[in-house]
Queue: 2 jobs
Job 1
Amino acid sequence: MSLTSADTYYVKALSTFRYDMESSMEALNYALGCDPDHAPSNCLMGRVYMEYIKNYDMAEEYFGYAIASDPKYPDTYEAFSQVLIWKGDIRHAQRLINFSFKLPGVDKAILHARRAQIYEIQGQPKLAIKAIKTALEHSYNSGYQWHFEMELARVKKKAKQMKKRKK
């Protein structure tokens, strides 16, 4: 089985995603022109709207297209849960995260980190700390481990400050 045109353009878009947005967007638009139901391309377009344009409604729409096209594409759930958190749609984010854990290939460390974000937003630092520790257990690269350790320290410090304020 060979790569489709949409796959080829998607790979081009992904390879320049953070470094050359003009080339990335051109390739991404070609990918979606070849196949509007290409889940990876829809997911990447959702990330563009989420991370660069800050249009969370459009990001959510593209993530929806990605899930409709391929409900088992794991990257969509990781990004989609973040945009839902940023939009304040915590209930939907929680349901999406819970469902995502059942998918093969999903990055469990990221999903546990998303749970930690939700707990922190809800004012539950102890649960956030526990979720970050679980994320650490599921992280398999030093970059993630460093990030989660910094998050853990930050949330612990925040929890102590909250405790002092209550006294």
Note: The chain has two domains: 1-106, 108-167.
Job 2
Amino acid sequence: MQVSEVLRVKGSTLFTVNPEMMLSDCVITMADHDIGSLVVMDRGRLAGMLTFREILRVMARRQLEHRSGPTGPIAETVVRDVMNGDPFVVSPDMDVNELRRVMLETRQRYLPVMDGTVLLGVISFHDVAKAVLEEQSFENRMLKAYIRDWPAEG
């Protein structure tokens, strides 16, 4: 199975933001749509990824800073200051097993899928798990049907 097949099953909904957007607005978007990542685009090009991981890091840093003195609220933070500006990018023809290895090694739960300079979508760890489960379920059904139809020995 290839990444392109996972994207096809997942659907084409994609949420993007620009690097100058306020982080607080991104948090609202992510909560409203129950998503864990936003693609950061700058002038039509991939600029980075914003995931709940980056948001938690900035919130934790602000909490620690607040203990030692007053700090600005998260509402004053822009995406550019906290995004992953160099996410690992995968191609649509990558094998899903290779994708799983990359996700584990890079510790990235959300990876942009690019065909050259064109953003095709984002693959999440959840998308991969769901696609693999569906593929295995299909294979199991086919094997059971094959066994059930096994010719009797004569």
Note: DSSP finds five helices and five strands in the chain.
